[in-house]
Amino acid sequence: MKYMLLIYSGSAEAPDPCTFEDWVAYDKEATEAGIVVSGHSLADLTTATTVRVDATGERAVTDGPFAETREVLGGYYVIDVPNLDVALDWAARCPGSRGNGAVEVRPVAEF
Amino acid sequence: MTDERAAGTHGSVEAVFREERGRLLAALVHRFGDLDLAEDVASEAIEAALRHWPADGVPARPGAWLLTTARRRAVDRLRRDQAYAARLALLAAEAERAGPAAPADTDGGLPDERLRLFFTCAHPALPAADRGALTLRYLAGLTTPEVARAYLVPTATMAQRLVRAKKKIREARIPFRVPDPHELPGRLPGVLQAVYSIFTEGYAASSGPHLQRLDLAEEAIRLARILRRLLPAEREVAGLLGLMLLVHARRDARTGPGGELVLLDAQDRTRWDRDMIAEGQALVLTALTGGPPGPYGVQAAIAALHDEAADEASTDWPQVVALYDVLLVLSPSPVVALNRAAAVAMRDGPEAGLALLDDLAGEPQLRGHHPYPAARADLLRRLGRRAEAAVAYREALDLAGTEPEREHLRRRLAAVEADTA
């Protein structure tokens, strides 16, 4: 069963309690456990661009993220594990869940 | 609820097999990994039993009969629906990956897998408000209309909540498993809370014409007894069962002949259930021996002190306050602080209690919580500050949920107003 771990960082002002080494260690652990399907960290929110296409096919491109949110999506993993409990364990171990951060766990839809 | 349950044939099927139903369902969920399928075939097996047993006699191992019948139905169904079967095969394979099954006790021919189901129903990924409902539906074996009545919501609303919760269990794949020993301290409180929420809903119904709904309190006790058998080494389970028994022992004295609320200080203690108190006391001992106490054990010990006292005046209030001090450390909350303040008022006088209550003013958790203004009102009344007491009684009246509680507050209000006049 695949789950996406959406890693949100808290407000930009709050200090990030995790070091780069924490992330490297987590990534290594998850990769060695053989559960990682894919994962990336995203570039700074100031680089985000949003695209909308209206009913006439007109494209609207705007600077910034789709919605003003206090929490910023900073990266993701897709992992393949047996059930939600295991997914929640990996989410809890993720450095992104600490401090003001949060990890949202979403099952990947199966069709 | 018993009368209502006996009303229809289907109702009586449920009543006869309620104990078996939980076990059967849990065994089927464990076997097939799917709550919907398990529910359907469990009901079919029970209905088959009701058709066959009166004519053919009850089989030697009724549990095994039910399980075999239900399994056969499930296999038939899976044969008809290959896509479904493929999905379940995948589930089974992944369940294997997740770890071996716990050794099952096979009392009566039915393995007892209920502990898994307890943990699934009270899973932290489910809405807290639905965990008690799921536990009532799948472990206590109540029907959906019965669960709806328990929470005083329309059947359609409850059905929708259960469907939504089941969908999350299925689609997010919340597992049917007992957490590992290292996870247990984090997960057991959720299960205990689900059971206790059923009890508190029964003991002090949050709204409605009746103060107590004893059937619900008894369901909660029954569930805690099952948990106690399944987790004999967990002292907080003993604490929870003890707490509920020690409180439930006072049920007959808690309402007067007209259904009116009778508070602890005015209860006829000869009407308390002595056997139930004795059982509760023994559980308190278990809960508080052999390690640091947990919040249910401490609450049970407080309930035991009340149950042991001949009257309010001879209650060991210093000990009650000391236990509330422990409880405040274990599970700090303004509600616990409120109860502690009431105990301090008994130990040191209403003035001391009132000072503590006033310190709690403005606590968000106490806003809209009628016991807070009601406790203030009682202490103000005892201090002879009748006008202020009347204001506080009115405030409590605006918030109180059940009619007997409101009636009690109206009587108190009338009394202080008469004295003022």
Automatic annotation (TrEMBL), chain A:
It holds the Pfam family YCII. Residues 1-111 form the YCII-related domain. It comes from the Bacteria. Belongs to the YciI family. This is YCII-related domain-containing protein. It comes from Micromonospora costi.
TrEMBL record, chain B:
One of its GO terms (molecular function) is sigma factor activity. InterPro entries: DUF6596 (IPR046531), RNA_pol_sigma-70_dom (IPR014284), RNA_pol_sigma70_r2 (IPR007627), RNA_pol_sigma70_r4_t2 (IPR013249), RNA_pol_sigma_r2 (IPR013325), RNA_pol_sigma_r3/r4-like (IPR013324), WH-like_DNA-bd_sf (IPR036388). The keyword Transcription applies. It comes from the Bacteria. The keyword Transcription applies. Residues 187-287 form the DUF6596 domain. Residues 17-82 form the RNA polymerase sigma-70 region domain. Gene3D superfamilies: 1.10.1740.10, Winged helix-like DNA-binding domain superfamily/Winged helix DNA-binding domain (1.10.10.10). GO terms for biological process: DNA-templated transcription initiation. SUPFAM superfamilies: Sigma2 domain of RNA polymerase sigma factors, Sigma3 and sigma4 domains of RNA polymerase sigma factors. Keywords: Sigma factor, Transcription, Transcription regulation. Residues 121-169 form the RNA polymerase sigma factor 70 region 4 type domain. PANTHER family: BLL6612 PROTEIN, BLL6612 PROTEIN-RELATED. NCBIfam families: sigma70-ECF (TIGR02937). Belongs to the sigma-70 factor family. ECF subfamily. This is Sigma-70 family RNA polymerase sigma factor.
